[in-house]
Amino acid sequence: MLPASPGALDSVDPALDDRIARVLAFFRAYDQRLGPPGPDPSADSHALSEARVIGDLAHRDDATVAGLARRLGLDPAQVGRIVRRLAELGDVARSPDPEDGRRRLLSLTGQGRHEFRTRQAVTRRRVAALLEELPPTRQERLAASLDRAREVLVDEPDSEWALRGPLPGELGWIVQAHARIYTDEYGFDGRFEGLVAQIVADYSARNDVALERCWIAEHLGRPVGSVMAVRHTDDIAQLRCLIVDSAARGLGIGRRLVAECIDFARSVGYARMMLWTVDILPSARRIYEAAGFELTSETPDRLWGRDLVSQHWEREL
Length: 317
Prior knowledge:
Layout lengths: L13 H21 L13 H10 L7 H8 L3 H14 L2 E6 L2 E9 L1 H23 L3 H19 L6 E4 L5 H17 L3 H17 L6 E7 L2 E10 L4 E9 L8 H15 L4 E7 L3 H9 L3 E10 L2 E11 L1
Parallel strand pairs: 6-7
Antiparallel strand pairs: 1-2, 3-4, 4-5, 5-6, 7-9, 8-9
């Protein structure tokens, strides 16, 4: 079959032609405001393809050349050459797959993670400069629109819900939802609402968007979940205020909220993430374990009118 001529799509399907024009208009606007995607080439010591490999490995514990090629849309032989070069530079480590000795599992070295964080910092500064030109309401509209676009492109099964930043009034929703759910389901008294209110107030007062972040899960047009990643120390981020309304459980929202926290904390340079919880939340425990958290300590406690066990969990980033 011969390739289509440059104008072959014109007038064949007017609706499709219109959508093509709108997508191209978005890319033109993006290029005018932010430039090519990714870090500034002048600040990047790696070629674009190498940088893409580093970016993919930064979000995976064990990858393979075949998996990288599939996700990045590159030829496996090309990816193999890129991996060999990055290994020679000291950015990538290769280890035997215990389940298949013919394969090598790939991961970033400490140097590779430093390279990734350096590139991420450049990218974040460029995006921050763009967003700072917009008022907060337009910033949130842009972020929410891109959430929807990403869901369409990757065909996510959870497309009826999305994560976004909190809209005006929704920090208050976090407090109300925690108070309602923990009172109804676990019998906590009013002191628990006061604790959550203080956590939310402290987050709002610091307003440290470079090192802290809050997400709201929206389902069918209303908030149904939340989580926060906040600074605990210079090296440790803390996961706080994870909750999912009973009407939206079973959709994978809790796991996605925790994953967003981990990815954010890693991207801004934290070395570890911790959280504090109590022992009567089995669903949350399963989510934390699946996300790589390990229980580091637990202590009997009397909290919010109940005898509980306080638990501390941590994981490396």
